[in-house]
Design a protein that fits this description.
522 residues, alpha/beta, Rossmann fold, 10-stranded mixed beta sheet, 5-stranded antiparallel beta sheet, 17 helices, disordered N terminus, disordered C terminus, NDUFAF7, methyltransferase, mitochondrion, NDUFAF7_sf
Length: 522
Protein backbone atom coordinates (compact mmCIF):
# COMPACT_ATOMS: atom_id res chain seq x y z
CA UNK A 1 0.00 0.00 0.00
CA UNK A 2 1.34 3.36 -0.94
CA UNK A 3 1.05 5.66 2.04
CA UNK A 4 -1.31 8.54 1.41
CA UNK A 5 0.07 11.93 2.34
CA UNK A 6 -3.05 12.93 4.22
CA UNK A 7 -4.80 9.66 5.13
CA UNK A 8 -8.55 9.89 5.31
CA UNK A 9 -10.13 8.21 8.25
CA UNK A 10 -10.52 4.49 7.60
CA UNK A 11 -8.93 4.60 4.16
CA UNK A 12 -6.12 2.18 4.91
CA UNK A 13 -8.44 -0.80 4.41
CA UNK A 14 -11.43 -1.42 2.21
CA UNK A 15 -14.67 -0.31 3.76
CA UNK A 16 -16.71 -3.15 2.34
CA UNK A 17 -15.97 -6.35 0.40
CA UNK A 18 -14.52 -5.86 -3.05
CA UNK A 19 -15.70 -9.23 -4.29
CA UNK A 20 -19.01 -10.95 -3.79
CA UNK A 21 -20.48 -14.04 -5.46
CA UNK A 22 -21.62 -13.12 -8.93
CA UNK A 23 -22.96 -14.73 -12.03
CA UNK A 24 -20.54 -15.79 -14.71
CA UNK A 25 -19.79 -13.78 -17.81
CA UNK A 26 -21.57 -16.28 -20.04
CA UNK A 27 -23.70 -14.28 -22.40
CA UNK A 28 -22.04 -10.99 -21.47
CA UNK A 29 -22.12 -8.71 -24.48
CA UNK A 30 -18.86 -6.91 -25.20
CA UNK A 31 -20.23 -4.93 -28.12
CA UNK A 32 -21.49 -1.40 -27.63
CA UNK A 33 -24.32 -0.25 -29.93
CA UNK A 34 -22.97 2.20 -32.49
CA UNK A 35 -25.14 5.16 -31.49
CA UNK A 36 -22.07 7.27 -30.78
CA UNK A 37 -18.47 6.53 -30.08
CA UNK A 38 -17.86 5.79 -26.43
CA UNK A 39 -15.57 8.17 -24.59
CA UNK A 40 -12.87 6.61 -22.40
CA UNK A 41 -11.05 8.15 -19.47
CA UNK A 42 -7.60 7.35 -20.92
CA UNK A 43 -6.16 6.01 -24.18
CA UNK A 44 -5.13 2.85 -22.30
CA UNK A 45 -8.73 2.24 -21.21
CA UNK A 46 -9.79 2.34 -24.84
CA UNK A 47 -7.06 -0.09 -25.86
CA UNK A 48 -7.98 -2.44 -23.02
CA UNK A 49 -11.58 -2.41 -24.21
CA UNK A 50 -10.50 -3.27 -27.75
CA UNK A 51 -8.33 -6.14 -26.50
CA UNK A 52 -11.05 -7.57 -24.26
CA UNK A 53 -13.62 -7.25 -27.04
CA UNK A 54 -11.37 -9.39 -29.23
CA UNK A 55 -10.32 -12.02 -26.67
CA UNK A 56 -12.97 -11.97 -23.96
CA UNK A 57 -12.55 -11.07 -20.27
CA UNK A 58 -8.97 -11.22 -18.99
CA UNK A 59 -7.43 -12.15 -15.61
CA UNK A 60 -7.07 -9.32 -13.11
CA UNK A 61 -3.29 -9.83 -13.25
CA UNK A 62 -3.33 -9.01 -16.97
CA UNK A 63 -5.31 -5.83 -16.34
CA UNK A 64 -2.96 -4.76 -13.53
CA UNK A 65 0.15 -5.46 -15.60
CA UNK A 66 -1.16 -3.37 -18.50
CA UNK A 67 -2.16 -0.52 -16.20
CA UNK A 68 1.13 -0.43 -14.27
CA UNK A 69 3.92 -1.44 -16.65
CA UNK A 70 2.35 -1.70 -20.10
CA UNK A 71 4.04 0.15 -22.95
CA UNK A 72 0.86 1.94 -23.94
CA UNK A 73 0.18 4.41 -21.15
CA UNK A 74 1.21 2.27 -18.16
CA UNK A 75 1.39 4.09 -14.81
CA UNK A 76 5.13 3.53 -14.43
CA UNK A 77 6.24 2.94 -17.99
CA UNK A 78 3.92 4.65 -20.45
CA UNK A 79 3.69 8.21 -21.67
CA UNK A 80 0.31 8.43 -23.41
CA UNK A 81 -1.86 10.75 -21.35
CA UNK A 82 0.47 10.38 -18.40
CA UNK A 83 0.25 13.13 -15.88
CA UNK A 84 3.19 15.46 -15.68
CA UNK A 85 5.50 15.42 -12.68
CA UNK A 86 6.33 12.76 -10.14
CA UNK A 87 4.23 9.89 -8.78
CA UNK A 88 6.07 10.09 -5.46
CA UNK A 89 6.00 12.69 -2.70
CA UNK A 90 3.51 15.23 -1.43
CA UNK A 91 2.78 16.54 -4.94
CA UNK A 92 2.37 13.07 -6.42
CA UNK A 93 0.00 10.20 -5.69
CA UNK A 94 1.66 8.70 -2.61
CA UNK A 95 4.60 9.07 -0.28
CA UNK A 96 6.92 6.28 0.87
CA UNK A 97 9.02 5.81 3.99
CA UNK A 98 12.35 6.93 2.46
CA UNK A 99 10.69 10.19 1.40
CA UNK A 100 9.38 10.76 4.92
CA UNK A 101 12.63 10.35 6.84
CA UNK A 102 16.27 9.76 6.00
CA UNK A 103 16.45 7.59 9.10
CA UNK A 104 14.49 4.85 7.34
CA UNK A 105 17.17 4.30 4.70
CA UNK A 106 19.87 4.63 7.33
CA UNK A 107 18.37 1.78 9.33
CA UNK A 108 18.28 -0.40 6.20
CA UNK A 109 21.94 0.39 5.55
CA UNK A 110 22.88 -0.52 9.11
CA UNK A 111 20.95 -3.79 8.77
CA UNK A 112 22.91 -4.73 5.65
CA UNK A 113 26.23 -4.06 7.37
CA UNK A 114 25.11 -5.90 10.50
CA UNK A 115 24.07 -8.98 8.52
CA UNK A 116 27.33 -8.90 6.55
CA UNK A 117 29.29 -8.80 9.82
CA UNK A 118 27.12 -11.53 11.35
CA UNK A 119 28.08 -13.85 8.51
CA UNK A 120 31.75 -13.36 9.36
CA UNK A 121 32.58 -11.25 6.31
CA UNK A 122 34.40 -8.59 8.35
CA UNK A 123 37.22 -10.98 9.21
CA UNK A 124 37.04 -12.89 5.92
CA UNK A 125 36.04 -10.54 3.09
CA UNK A 126 36.54 -13.15 0.39
CA UNK A 127 33.42 -12.25 -1.59
CA UNK A 128 32.56 -9.04 -3.38
CA UNK A 129 29.16 -7.54 -2.56
CA UNK A 130 26.29 -7.21 -5.00
CA UNK A 131 23.94 -4.54 -3.65
CA UNK A 132 20.57 -5.10 -5.35
CA UNK A 133 17.43 -3.01 -5.01
CA UNK A 134 14.20 -4.16 -6.67
CA UNK A 135 11.78 -1.35 -7.51
CA UNK A 136 13.99 1.61 -6.45
CA UNK A 137 11.40 4.37 -6.88
CA UNK A 138 13.11 7.75 -6.99
CA UNK A 139 16.41 6.30 -5.78
CA UNK A 140 16.09 7.97 -2.38
CA UNK A 141 16.38 4.73 -0.43
CA UNK A 142 19.56 3.66 -2.23
CA UNK A 143 21.08 7.12 -1.72
CA UNK A 144 20.46 6.88 2.04
CA UNK A 145 21.77 3.30 2.14
CA UNK A 146 24.99 4.22 0.34
CA UNK A 147 25.59 7.25 2.54
CA UNK A 148 25.19 5.01 5.58
CA UNK A 149 27.26 1.98 4.54
CA UNK A 150 30.19 4.20 3.60
CA UNK A 151 30.60 4.94 7.26
CA UNK A 152 31.78 1.32 7.45
CA UNK A 153 34.86 1.23 5.20
CA UNK A 154 35.29 -2.54 5.26
CA UNK A 155 31.77 -3.07 3.92
CA UNK A 156 31.95 -0.19 1.45
CA UNK A 157 35.28 -1.34 0.00
CA UNK A 158 33.77 -4.79 -0.62
CA UNK A 159 30.97 -3.49 -2.86
CA UNK A 160 31.49 -4.77 -6.39
CA UNK A 161 28.38 -3.48 -8.20
CA UNK A 162 25.07 -1.84 -7.34
CA UNK A 163 22.13 -3.23 -9.32
CA UNK A 164 18.85 -1.36 -9.72
CA UNK A 165 16.03 -3.58 -11.01
CA UNK A 166 13.69 -1.09 -12.66
CA UNK A 167 11.10 -1.54 -15.42
CA UNK A 168 10.45 2.18 -15.93
CA UNK A 169 12.89 4.08 -18.13
CA UNK A 170 11.67 7.37 -16.69
CA UNK A 171 12.25 6.25 -13.10
CA UNK A 172 15.64 4.79 -14.03
CA UNK A 173 16.59 8.20 -15.41
CA UNK A 174 15.52 9.90 -12.18
CA UNK A 175 17.53 7.40 -10.15
CA UNK A 176 20.60 7.98 -12.32
CA UNK A 177 20.32 11.75 -11.94
CA UNK A 178 20.10 11.47 -8.15
CA UNK A 179 22.84 8.88 -7.65
CA UNK A 180 25.22 9.76 -10.49
CA UNK A 181 24.37 13.31 -11.50
CA UNK A 182 22.48 14.63 -14.52
CA UNK A 183 25.68 15.01 -16.54
CA UNK A 184 26.86 11.45 -15.91
CA UNK A 185 26.73 9.34 -19.08
CA UNK A 186 24.77 6.10 -19.32
CA UNK A 187 26.74 3.28 -20.91
CA UNK A 188 24.90 0.43 -22.60
CA UNK A 189 25.70 -3.00 -21.16
CA UNK A 190 24.65 -6.57 -21.91
CA UNK A 191 21.89 -6.42 -19.32
CA UNK A 192 20.91 -2.75 -19.42
CA UNK A 193 22.77 0.50 -18.74
CA UNK A 194 25.40 1.59 -16.25
CA UNK A 195 26.88 4.72 -14.76
CA UNK A 196 29.16 5.69 -11.87
CA UNK A 197 27.97 6.83 -8.45
CA UNK A 198 28.87 10.51 -8.00
CA UNK A 199 29.88 10.20 -4.35
CA UNK A 200 31.66 6.88 -4.08
CA UNK A 201 32.53 5.86 -7.65
CA UNK A 202 30.82 2.47 -7.50
CA UNK A 203 29.37 1.10 -10.70
CA UNK A 204 25.57 1.23 -10.80
CA UNK A 205 23.80 -0.99 -13.32
CA UNK A 206 20.15 -0.65 -14.32
CA UNK A 207 18.33 -3.72 -15.59
CA UNK A 208 14.65 -4.61 -15.96
CA UNK A 209 15.05 -8.20 -14.75
CA UNK A 210 16.64 -9.68 -11.65
CA UNK A 211 17.43 -12.83 -13.63
CA UNK A 212 19.85 -10.80 -15.78
CA UNK A 213 22.08 -10.03 -12.80
CA UNK A 214 25.17 -12.31 -12.69
CA UNK A 215 24.97 -15.02 -10.07
CA UNK A 216 28.16 -16.83 -9.10
CA UNK A 217 30.14 -18.00 -6.09
CA UNK A 218 32.46 -15.00 -6.24
CA UNK A 219 29.82 -12.50 -5.16
CA UNK A 220 27.55 -12.14 -2.15
CA UNK A 221 24.06 -10.74 -2.86
CA UNK A 222 22.33 -8.29 -0.55
CA UNK A 223 18.81 -7.57 -1.80
CA UNK A 224 16.38 -4.85 -0.70
CA UNK A 225 12.76 -4.71 -1.87
CA UNK A 226 10.76 -1.85 -0.38
CA UNK A 227 7.13 -1.43 -1.49
CA UNK A 228 7.78 -3.62 -4.51
CA UNK A 229 5.74 -6.75 -3.87
CA UNK A 230 2.48 -4.83 -3.32
CA UNK A 231 2.61 -3.56 -6.91
CA UNK A 232 2.84 -7.04 -8.43
CA UNK A 233 -0.26 -8.31 -10.31
CA UNK A 234 -2.62 -10.66 -8.49
CA UNK A 235 -5.10 -13.33 -9.60
CA UNK A 236 -8.42 -13.63 -7.77
CA UNK A 237 -10.33 -16.91 -7.43
CA UNK A 238 -13.74 -17.81 -6.02
CA UNK A 239 -14.94 -21.21 -4.88
CA UNK A 240 -18.21 -22.33 -6.52
CA UNK A 241 -20.41 -25.38 -6.24
CA UNK A 242 -20.33 -27.70 -9.22
CA UNK A 243 -23.45 -29.51 -10.44
CA UNK A 244 -23.97 -33.03 -9.11
CA UNK A 245 -24.12 -35.76 -11.77
CA UNK A 246 -27.69 -36.67 -12.87
CA UNK A 247 -29.24 -39.82 -11.35
CA UNK A 248 -28.68 -43.00 -13.39
CA UNK A 249 -31.40 -44.00 -15.87
CA UNK A 250 -33.37 -47.18 -15.25
CA UNK A 251 -32.50 -50.15 -17.44
CA UNK A 252 -35.33 -52.44 -18.67
CA UNK A 253 -36.38 -54.98 -16.02
CA UNK A 254 -34.76 -53.07 -13.14
CA UNK A 255 -36.66 -51.96 -10.09
CA UNK A 256 -37.56 -48.27 -10.08
CA UNK A 257 -34.77 -46.01 -8.88
CA UNK A 258 -36.84 -44.93 -5.89
CA UNK A 259 -37.18 -48.56 -4.69
CA UNK A 260 -33.44 -49.14 -5.21
CA UNK A 261 -32.70 -46.03 -3.16
CA UNK A 262 -34.95 -47.24 -0.28
CA UNK A 263 -33.16 -50.56 -0.30
CA UNK A 264 -29.76 -48.94 0.20
CA UNK A 265 -28.52 -48.18 3.70
CA UNK A 266 -28.84 -44.49 4.60
CA UNK A 267 -25.58 -42.53 4.53
CA UNK A 268 -24.79 -39.00 5.55
CA UNK A 269 -25.37 -36.42 2.85
CA UNK A 270 -22.11 -35.55 1.16
CA UNK A 271 -21.20 -31.90 0.65
CA UNK A 272 -21.57 -30.56 -2.84
CA UNK A 273 -18.38 -30.69 -4.89
CA UNK A 274 -16.66 -27.35 -5.43
CA UNK A 275 -14.07 -25.92 -7.75
CA UNK A 276 -12.12 -22.71 -8.15
CA UNK A 277 -13.22 -20.18 -10.76
CA UNK A 278 -11.28 -17.09 -11.72
CA UNK A 279 -12.51 -13.52 -11.44
CA UNK A 280 -11.94 -11.81 -14.78
CA UNK A 281 -11.97 -8.17 -15.91
CA UNK A 282 -14.67 -7.17 -18.40
CA UNK A 283 -15.96 -3.78 -19.59
CA UNK A 284 -18.96 -2.14 -17.96
CA UNK A 285 -21.65 -1.60 -20.54
CA UNK A 286 -23.10 1.93 -20.77
CA UNK A 287 -26.27 2.33 -18.76
CA UNK A 288 -25.58 -0.70 -16.54
CA UNK A 289 -24.51 -0.90 -12.91
CA UNK A 290 -21.03 -2.37 -12.50
CA UNK A 291 -20.37 -5.21 -10.08
CA UNK A 292 -17.23 -5.91 -8.06
CA UNK A 293 -15.42 -2.67 -8.82
CA UNK A 294 -14.32 -1.99 -5.25
CA UNK A 295 -15.40 0.11 -2.33
CA UNK A 296 -13.61 3.20 -3.59
CA UNK A 297 -15.30 5.12 -6.33
CA UNK A 298 -13.53 7.52 -8.62
CA UNK A 299 -12.60 10.86 -7.09
CA UNK A 300 -13.12 12.44 -10.51
CA UNK A 301 -16.72 13.63 -11.11
CA UNK A 302 -18.39 12.03 -14.09
CA UNK A 303 -15.96 9.10 -14.31
CA UNK A 304 -17.86 5.89 -13.48
CA UNK A 305 -16.21 2.48 -13.45
CA UNK A 306 -15.23 1.41 -16.96
CA UNK A 307 -14.37 -2.17 -16.04
CA UNK A 308 -15.63 -4.75 -13.56
CA UNK A 309 -14.87 -8.22 -12.26
CA UNK A 310 -16.98 -11.14 -13.44
CA UNK A 311 -16.80 -14.82 -12.59
CA UNK A 312 -15.53 -17.14 -15.31
CA UNK A 313 -18.14 -19.56 -16.64
CA UNK A 314 -15.67 -22.46 -16.47
CA UNK A 315 -12.29 -23.16 -14.87
CA UNK A 316 -9.35 -21.32 -16.40
CA UNK A 317 -5.85 -22.73 -16.65
CA UNK A 318 -4.87 -20.48 -13.73
CA UNK A 319 -7.76 -21.66 -11.53
CA UNK A 320 -6.86 -25.28 -12.20
CA UNK A 321 -3.37 -25.08 -10.73
CA UNK A 322 -2.66 -21.87 -8.78
CA UNK A 323 -5.04 -22.46 -5.83
CA UNK A 324 -4.11 -26.17 -5.81
CA UNK A 325 -0.38 -25.43 -5.41
CA UNK A 326 -0.66 -24.74 -1.68
CA UNK A 327 -2.51 -26.57 1.08
CA UNK A 328 -3.47 -23.19 2.57
CA UNK A 329 -6.43 -22.94 0.20
CA UNK A 330 -7.74 -26.49 0.66
CA UNK A 331 -10.31 -25.79 3.36
CA UNK A 332 -11.50 -22.56 1.73
CA UNK A 333 -12.25 -24.44 -1.47
CA UNK A 334 -14.90 -26.44 0.38
CA UNK A 335 -16.84 -23.27 1.24
CA UNK A 336 -18.70 -21.87 -1.81
CA UNK A 337 -18.21 -18.14 -2.13
CA UNK A 338 -14.72 -18.13 -0.61
CA UNK A 339 -12.40 -15.67 -2.36
CA UNK A 340 -8.59 -15.73 -2.40
CA UNK A 341 -5.83 -13.64 -3.96
CA UNK A 342 -2.66 -15.23 -5.36
CA UNK A 343 0.40 -13.42 -6.70
CA UNK A 344 2.58 -15.73 -8.85
CA UNK A 345 5.07 -12.93 -9.51
CA UNK A 346 5.70 -12.60 -5.77
CA UNK A 347 6.47 -16.33 -5.61
CA UNK A 348 8.83 -15.95 -8.58
CA UNK A 349 10.81 -13.10 -7.02
CA UNK A 350 10.92 -14.77 -3.60
CA UNK A 351 12.22 -17.96 -5.20
CA UNK A 352 14.81 -16.13 -7.33
CA UNK A 353 16.10 -14.23 -4.30
CA UNK A 354 16.25 -17.41 -2.19
CA UNK A 355 18.21 -19.33 -4.83
CA UNK A 356 20.76 -16.55 -5.12
CA UNK A 357 21.34 -16.65 -1.38
CA UNK A 358 21.09 -20.37 -0.70
CA UNK A 359 22.07 -22.36 -3.78
CA UNK A 360 25.81 -21.69 -4.10
CA UNK A 361 28.60 -23.82 -2.72
CA UNK A 362 28.31 -21.68 0.38
CA UNK A 363 24.97 -20.00 1.20
CA UNK A 364 25.67 -16.28 1.62
CA UNK A 365 24.04 -12.88 1.47
CA UNK A 366 20.62 -11.73 2.64
CA UNK A 367 17.40 -10.08 1.54
CA UNK A 368 15.19 -7.58 3.33
CA UNK A 369 11.58 -7.17 2.17
CA UNK A 370 9.53 -4.28 3.55
CA UNK A 371 5.91 -3.89 2.53
CA UNK A 372 2.39 -4.01 3.84
CA UNK A 373 0.17 -7.05 3.88
CA UNK A 374 -1.11 -10.00 5.87
CA UNK A 375 1.14 -11.80 8.34
CA UNK A 376 -0.46 -15.24 8.38
CA UNK A 377 -3.86 -14.93 6.68
CA UNK A 378 -4.73 -15.01 2.98
CA UNK A 379 -5.36 -11.55 1.48
CA UNK A 380 -8.85 -10.83 0.19
CA UNK A 381 -10.56 -7.66 -1.02
CA UNK A 382 -7.25 -5.81 -1.07
CA UNK A 383 -7.09 -4.34 -4.58
CA UNK A 384 -7.09 -0.56 -4.44
CA UNK A 385 -6.44 2.39 -6.71
CA UNK A 386 -4.42 5.36 -5.44
CA UNK A 387 -4.40 8.83 -6.95
CA UNK A 388 -3.46 12.17 -5.42
CA UNK A 389 -3.22 10.67 -1.93
CA UNK A 390 -6.72 9.20 -2.08
CA UNK A 391 -8.06 5.69 -2.53
CA UNK A 392 -10.00 5.59 -5.77
CA UNK A 393 -11.78 3.16 -8.06
CA UNK A 394 -9.15 0.81 -9.54
CA UNK A 395 -11.25 0.35 -12.70
CA UNK A 396 -11.22 3.86 -14.10
CA UNK A 397 -8.50 6.23 -15.31
CA UNK A 398 -6.50 3.17 -16.36
CA UNK A 399 -2.81 4.01 -16.46
CA UNK A 400 -3.19 7.18 -14.39
CA UNK A 401 -4.04 5.38 -11.14
CA UNK A 402 -1.55 3.38 -9.11
CA UNK A 403 -2.79 -0.13 -8.30
CA UNK A 404 -1.83 -1.97 -5.16
CA UNK A 405 -2.74 -5.14 -3.24
CA UNK A 406 -1.76 -6.63 0.11
CA UNK A 407 1.37 -8.79 0.20
CA UNK A 408 0.81 -12.38 1.30
CA UNK A 409 3.89 -12.78 3.50
CA UNK A 410 3.09 -16.42 4.21
CA UNK A 411 3.10 -17.17 0.48
CA UNK A 412 6.40 -15.30 0.07
CA UNK A 413 7.87 -17.39 2.88
CA UNK A 414 6.62 -20.62 1.34
CA UNK A 415 8.06 -19.74 -2.05
CA UNK A 416 11.48 -18.88 -0.62
CA UNK A 417 11.75 -22.06 1.43
CA UNK A 418 10.54 -24.25 -1.44
CA UNK A 419 13.02 -22.65 -3.85
CA UNK A 420 16.14 -23.33 -1.78
CA UNK A 421 17.05 -25.55 1.14
CA UNK A 422 19.94 -23.18 1.83
CA UNK A 423 17.86 -20.36 3.30
CA UNK A 424 15.67 -19.62 6.27
CA UNK A 425 13.09 -16.87 6.67
CA UNK A 426 12.59 -14.59 9.66
CA UNK A 427 9.50 -12.49 10.24
CA UNK A 428 7.44 -10.80 9.25
CA UNK A 429 7.70 -8.32 12.10
CA UNK A 430 5.92 -4.99 12.17
CA UNK A 431 7.92 -2.05 10.84
CA UNK A 432 7.81 -0.26 14.19
CA UNK A 433 9.50 -3.17 15.99
CA UNK A 434 12.10 -3.53 13.25
CA UNK A 435 13.05 0.15 13.14
CA UNK A 436 13.14 0.49 16.92
CA UNK A 437 15.35 -2.59 17.28
CA UNK A 438 17.64 -1.14 14.62
CA UNK A 439 18.04 2.01 16.73
CA UNK A 440 15.95 4.63 14.94
CA UNK A 441 15.08 6.39 18.20
CA UNK A 442 18.75 6.72 19.10
CA UNK A 443 19.59 7.95 15.59
CA UNK A 444 16.92 10.66 15.81
CA UNK A 445 18.31 11.74 19.18
CA UNK A 446 21.73 12.17 17.54
CA UNK A 447 20.22 14.31 14.77
CA UNK A 448 18.37 16.47 17.28
CA UNK A 449 21.56 16.95 19.30
CA UNK A 450 23.40 17.99 16.15
CA UNK A 451 20.69 20.51 15.26
CA UNK A 452 20.77 22.02 18.74
CA UNK A 453 24.54 22.50 18.52
CA UNK A 454 24.32 24.29 15.16
CA UNK A 455 25.39 27.86 15.86
CA UNK A 456 24.50 29.08 12.38
CA UNK A 457 20.73 28.48 12.78
CA UNK A 458 18.26 30.58 14.73
CA UNK A 459 16.21 29.16 17.58
CA UNK A 460 13.04 29.09 15.47
CA UNK A 461 14.87 27.31 12.63
CA UNK A 462 16.17 24.73 15.06
CA UNK A 463 12.73 24.17 16.56
CA UNK A 464 11.21 23.70 13.10
CA UNK A 465 13.86 21.17 12.05
CA UNK A 466 13.50 19.23 15.29
CA UNK A 467 9.72 19.17 14.94
CA UNK A 468 9.93 17.90 11.35
CA UNK A 469 12.42 15.15 12.23
CA UNK A 470 10.40 14.07 15.26
CA UNK A 471 7.07 13.96 13.42
CA UNK A 472 8.64 12.05 10.54
CA UNK A 473 10.16 9.19 12.52
CA UNK A 474 7.11 8.86 14.75
CA UNK A 475 5.02 8.50 11.61
CA UNK A 476 7.16 5.52 10.58
CA UNK A 477 6.63 3.72 13.90
CA UNK A 478 3.04 4.75 14.65
CA UNK A 479 1.20 1.59 15.73
CA UNK A 480 -2.25 3.16 15.39
CA UNK A 481 -4.89 1.70 13.05
CA UNK A 482 -3.71 3.90 10.18
CA UNK A 483 -0.08 4.07 11.25
CA UNK A 484 2.80 2.80 9.19
CA UNK A 485 4.44 1.07 12.14
CA UNK A 486 1.83 -1.67 12.35
CA UNK A 487 0.56 -1.95 8.77
CA UNK A 488 4.01 -2.24 7.22
CA UNK A 489 6.11 -5.31 7.93
CA UNK A 490 9.66 -6.54 7.44
CA UNK A 491 10.77 -10.01 6.38
CA UNK A 492 14.34 -11.33 6.09
CA UNK A 493 15.81 -14.17 4.04
CA UNK A 494 19.25 -15.31 5.21
CA UNK A 495 21.46 -18.40 4.78
CA UNK A 496 20.15 -21.48 6.57
CA UNK A 497 21.83 -22.02 9.94
CA UNK A 498 19.42 -24.36 11.77
CA UNK A 499 17.90 -21.34 13.51
CA UNK A 500 21.04 -20.75 15.57
CA UNK A 501 21.16 -17.07 14.65
CA UNK A 502 18.35 -14.61 14.10
CA UNK A 503 19.22 -11.46 12.17
CA UNK A 504 19.35 -8.16 13.99
CA UNK A 505 15.95 -6.48 13.92
CA UNK A 506 14.27 -9.89 14.09
CA UNK A 507 15.38 -10.89 17.58
CA UNK A 508 19.08 -11.29 16.85
CA UNK A 509 21.97 -9.53 18.53
CA UNK A 510 24.92 -8.35 16.45
CA UNK A 511 27.53 -8.72 19.20
CA UNK A 512 26.50 -12.31 19.95
CA UNK A 513 26.39 -13.16 16.26
CA UNK A 514 29.94 -11.87 15.80
CA UNK A 515 31.17 -13.90 18.74
CA UNK A 516 29.47 -17.03 17.51
CA UNK A 517 30.51 -16.65 13.86
CA UNK A 518 28.71 -18.16 10.88
CA UNK A 519 30.15 -21.64 11.22
CA UNK A 520 30.03 -22.07 15.01
CA UNK A 521 27.53 -24.82 15.77
CA UNK A 522 27.59 -24.50 19.56
Amino acid sequence: MRLLFTPARGCTRLARPLFRPVQSFRGLSLTVPRKEERKWSTPLAKELYKAISATGPVPLATYMRMCLTGDLGGYYTGDIGAKEGDHFGTKGDFITSPEISQCFGEMIGIWLVAEWMSQGRLTSPSHRIQLIEIGPGRGTLMADILRTVHRFPAFASSIDTIYMVEASRELAKRQKNLLCGEAAPLIKTEIGQSSVCKQNSETIVWTDSITAIPNDDKTIPFVVAHEFFDALPIHVFQSVSTPSPPPPTEAPGEAPAAEQQRAKPKVAKQPEPTEWREMLVAPVQPGTTPVNTGAFRSSEPGLPSEFQLVLSSAPTKQSLYMPEASSRYKQLKKVPGSVIEICPDAAFYAGEIARRIGDGREPKGAALILDYGTESTIPINSLRGIREHKFVDPFTLSGLVDLSADVDFMAVTEAALEASEGVEVHGPVCQADFLELMGIKERVAMLVKHIKSDTSASASEKDEKIQNITEAWKRLVDRGPNGMGKLYKALAIIPENDGRRAPVGFGGDLAQAQQRGPTDKN
